[in-house]
Amino acid sequence: MALTPNVAAGALIQSAWGNEIRDRTVQRFATFAELTAGWPDAAKGAVAVTLDTLTVWVHTGTAWRAVPLRGKAVVTTDASAYCTITHNLGTIPGVVLVTAGGPASGTGTATTYVQDHTTPMTATTARFRVFGPSGTNVVSSTVTIFWTVFP
Question: Is the dihedral of CA 125, 129, 132, 134 positive or negative?
Answer without folding.
Answer: negative
